[in-house]
Amino acid sequence: AADLKIRSRIVKARRVFQELDADGSGSISVEEIREHASTPAVLEFFESVDVHPEEAQHLIEVLDMKDDGNIGFEDFLEIAVRLNGMPKASDLLMLYHEVKRFHVHSAAEMNRIKIALGLEPGPPALSSDGSIT
To answer: Which stretch is the leader sequence (predicted)?
Structure first.
């Protein structure tokens, strides 16, 4: 039953994506959502995933990894399949830990880059005879 529900959402998402992709580019933009947000199929789709059309515009901006103002069908499908109602506490906790982990790793990487560029002193180096240089 759950598998059938997901398949149904994918089919609906494909139809709505094609309707939103007015220029046939294979991606949709915030502008295309604005232009078609009031059509019955689009309204019904966003309502079925508990997303207001204005929220959809923000989701497009968040999912736009290329920062070109567009998302492809795979990213749009994330809206269709993954979003359904309010997030659970466990969803928020997992997100918090993912962001925290990313922050720790990126801070360590930034520090490594600064040391490599000579912008920050690194740990003391040992010469071949074992003395600190």
So the answer is: none
Copy the structure tokens of residue 112. Answer: 């490594």
- In a 10 Å sphere around its CB, with 0-12 CB exposed, 13-18 middle and 19+ buried, how is residue 73 labelled? middle
CATH of segment(s) 2-82? 1.10.238.10
| Phi–psi pair at 27, nearest 5 degrees | -140, 160
pLDDT tens digits for range 52-94 = 777 777 777 777 878 888 888 988 887 777 766 666 677 778 8
CA dist., res. 116 & res. 120, Å (int): 8
What gap in Å lies between CA 63 and CA 79, rounded to an integer? Answer: 9
> Which long-range contacts link 34-43 to residues 24+ away (Cβ below 8 Å)?
41/15, 41/16, 42/16
Q: Tell me the C-alpha to C-alpha distance, in Å, between residue 78 and each of 39, 63, 81.
A: 21, 9, 5
What is the pTM assigned to this prediction? 0.58
